[in-house]
Every structure is written in structure tokens, then in C-alpha cells.
């Protein structure tokens, strides 16, 4: 069975609606056809300033949210990155075949380091994409479901896999990105020209999956819309309404056209009220499921330990092959 792998950083107290639509919905859909590995990249979360106690708590919250989103811990392997040391071990080897210039061209590094200035950004933030490449290649993943903002990192991963294979012999599966057009970029509700983002959006631009239902609904109702009044899907001229239509479609499974037809002749306000109710219901359910899972930490710990064990069973033979190809002497 082909393999799918993806991860989402535990860098906030909650994932947001962009993560849910752009990533988790695909993760859930793919777990039927693929052997699935979904993980929480806690090691990626320490590349910027952070609080250790908050990270630990957020990692549990993240795990609970993956399950609340519909990732099934029986069918899919759910684990925490730092519990599988092979990721970091492979990352080092990959860093040694990554060009400095190549790493410098990663736009996420440029965006994130522009906050502090490149001089005070950590080396970890700079090498972040090589750890991400290791996350993927260590499982010989065929497919990586992500949002549009991760495309460049997957491209780097493919290049590194091909380069290693070419230099040291066939070792890695070259993975394909799985980016679903139209939903791979959910926009900020207050500034629909920018993506919904935990690090860049203001509080009203982002619906957090753990927002209380009233707050979430209110954010949708107060979303910035566009001039004019016609409800039409036109991302270029009507980015606000188009973003709401995309969210509406993703959450209901109905095509955008059908929604446009339903609201024909109505005002933006009608669309927002209807969507606010859908989003309110979603976060009510999602929050309740997440909180129930968080109530039993011992159960979550056991689930993650089991996930790490299943993950290592795949990661460890890959690392062994890589070490052999790299010319490292085996313990005998
Ligand atoms: P992260 O944690 O920023 O985001 C998790 C996933 O959510 C997607 N996403 C969005 N999709 C649509 N609209 C948005 N506004 C939006 N914002 C975020 C992201 O594209 C991502 O799929 N580097 C990764 C985490 C990672 C990873 C990996 C992913 C580490 N190792 C290996 C895949 C494979 C990241 O920072 O995603």
C-alpha cells in the first residue's frame, strides 16, 4: 500500500480553520487508500522563541485535535516527532547535501526571519526544511498532503531525495505533493489577500478550531467582504466573498456553483450568517471531542507511545540503509 505522511506544528493553543480545511480534511480522506503517518513536529516548533511548558501542553492539544478532526489512530499512525529520533538523525545527513544557497531561497525562512531580522534568526529556522525533508523521506512516503505554503519545501525534499539517490544509490522514494487546488489556501478573514496564519493574522482574521462557537461565528459574520453586493466566485476582484464561498464549499462538500446559485439575489450578509452557523456548529463539535480526549492524558500518552513505536519500525530500517550508503561503520 502506498504511504502518505504529513505534519502540523503545535505552535499555537489551537489549530485554525486553514489547517483544518487545507490539511486535516485531506489527511482524513487519504487514510483509506494509504498507509498513513501523521505527526506533530514539535522539533520544528523550537526553531523560533518558545516556552517549553506551553510546547508540551500544545503537543497534547495538537494530538487530540488530529483525532478530533477524524484521523483514526487505529488506521493511521499518529505520533510526536521528538519521540522518533531517526528524523533528527536523517536531517543531519540531508543537511550535508543541501546547498547553502538552496536553503537561503526558502521563502518561509525569509518570511519568518524577517520578523526578527536574519541575524537573530536561529540556525534551526534556517535548516528547518531539511528536517521536514527527513520527516518525509524517512518513511519513504509517496504522497504529502499540505497547503499551498508548503509546496516549496516539498520541492526541496524531492530534489534532496533525487540527489541522494544519484550520489549514493537508489535509497529514497521521491514523494509527490498532494495540494488540492481551491482549498490549499484559506485566506485571512480581515485581509483576504493574505493567508489565514497563526503567526501573521490578527485575532479576528483567524477562526481557531478551539474558539467557542459564538466567537467563531462572530468572526465569520464580521469578515471583510468586497465592494458591490453580488455573491460571485471571483478571487481576483472579490477575494473576501470568494474566500467565504471556498470555506462554505469545503465544509459542506457542496460545489461552489451550487452555493452561488442558492444565494442568488441575496446580500453578503445572508451568506455570512449561513456560514457562521456552519462554522459555529463545526467548532462546537470539534472542541467537545478535543476536550474529551484531553481529559485522559494517560490514554493519550499510550496512544502516542504506540504511534512512535509503529513509526520507528519504518523509520529505523530507512536510517540504517542511509547510514550504510553514507559510509558509516556499523556497530558490530
Ligand atoms: P503548518 O504547521 O504551518 O501547517 C499545517 C498544515 O496546514 C496548512 N495550512 C493551510 N492550508 C490552507 N490555508 C491556510 N491558510 C493554511 N495555513 C496552513 C499547511 O500548508 C500545512 O499543510 N512545515 C510544516 C509542518 C511539517 C510538515 C512536515 C508537513 C513539518 N514536517 C512533513 C508535511 C510533511 C508547517 O509548518 O505546516
Spatial strand arrangement across the major sheet: 1-2-3
Spatial separation of the terminal alpha carbons: 34 Å
SSE ordering: EHEHEHHHHEHEHHHHH
Largest sheet entry: 3 strands, parallel
Task: Provide the helix percentage.
Answer: 40-55%
Bound molecules: tryptophanyl-5'AMP
How many DSSP helices? 12
- Gyration radius, to the nearest Å? 21 Å
Gross morphology is globular
Strand content: 5-15%
- The chain-level mean pLDDT equals 96
Low-pLDDT sequence parts = none
Extended strand count:
5
SSE-based structural type: mainly alpha
If you had to describe this structure to a student in words, what would you say it looks like?
This protein has 332 residues and is mainly α. The protein has helices spanning 17-30, 52-68, 86-95, 100-104, 107-116, 123-137, 151-168, 213-221, 239-252, 256-262, 268-294, 297-326, and strands at residues 3-7, 35-40, 77-80, 143-145, 176-178. Strands 1-2-3 form a 3-stranded parallel sheet. It starts with a strand and ends in a 6-residue tail after the last helix. Helix 3 crosses helix 6 (123-137), helix 6 (123-137) packs across helix 7 and helix 9 (239-252) crosses helix 11 (268-294). It contains 12 helices and 5 strands. The structure holds tryptophanyl-5'AMP. Tryptophanyl-5'AMP binds at residues 5-9, 18-19, 22-23, 41, 44, 132, 135-136, 144, 146-147, 149-150, 184-186, 195-197.
